[in-house]
Amino acid sequence: MSLSNEQMERYRRNIMLKEVGISGQERLYNGRALVIGAGGLGSPVSMYLAAAGVGTIGIADADEVDRSNLQRQLLHTTADIGRAKVDSAKEKLCAMNPDIHVRTYHELVTEENITPLIADYDFILDATDNFTAKFLINDACVMAEKPFTHAGISRFQGQLMTYVPGRGPCYRCVFGNPPSENDVPPAKNTGVIGALAGVIGSLQALEAVKFFTGAGELLTGRLLTYDALNMEFHTVKLPGETGECRAHRKLRGKTG
């Protein structure tokens, strides 16, 4: 793929970076990223992927836009209330960048459909808001050897890590099993400051851009945490592999 004159102008600020250049921009255009969740995290994630020129973006979400979403989910407006989030998202992303292809999946991601869903994509972005989905995404990506980035936000706290096969522990290796419903209240009951989603979601998108272009170092083997109240970032080095991946062990037990 050769960049057109219009694309050269659109992506000029990317191409000026020696870590990206024309070849990196072409890799972005040939890249295929799947965003699971079109809400608080999924909004900045997908918007920055589209702006960067990632050529194929999948958006998976089963929900419709609700008025309570609008405080943080910047893909959606008041006029979108009641619409499928994936339809609202596609409209905004294609208006932002008509060069890209946006595929939508208006369905709940489950054990039954996640494997074929992620199969066509190079990089997966977990923009969900519950532990069941996060462990499901992790386990499917580990088994399919798909790189992905995880993020979570609550109140004024956020965290982020990236998994690439063979380059560090997965989400289940770090956190074990999902907490019980009694241990962690539902996200809708805890509150979250809207701009936090923008900070953490933007960092997720940056991880995807770095993955496609090969620029810099990914958050593999490290967990980034952010305290918005005190404006503090911390990077925690995660333990190295100490045996079989927990996701592999769990799934082998399920099938065996």
Defining key terms:
256 residues; single chain; globular; 8-stranded mixed β-sheet
State the end-to-end CA separation.
Answer: 45 Å
Largest sheet: 8 strands, mixed
Work out the number of β strands. Answer: 8
Q: Helix count, per DSSP? A: 10
Radius of gyration: 18 Å
Order of helices and strands: HHHEHEHEHEHEEHHEEH
- Given the C-alpha coordinates, what overall shape results? globular
* Percent strand: 15-25%
Structural class: alpha/beta
- Poorly predicted regions are none
- Strand neighbour order, sheet with most strands: 3-2-1-4-5-6-7-8
Helicity, as a percent range: 25-40%
The pLDDT mean sits at: 93
Structure description:
The protein has 256 residues and is an alpha/beta fold. Helix content is 38%, strand content 18%. It has helices at residues 5-10, 12-15, 21-30, 42-52, 85-96, 114-119, 131-144, 171-175, 194-213, 246-255, and strands spanning 32-36, 56-60, 101-105, 123-126, 148-154, 157-163, 222-227, 232-237. The protein has an eight-stranded mixed beta sheet with strand order 3-2-1-4-5-6-7-8, sandwiched between helices.
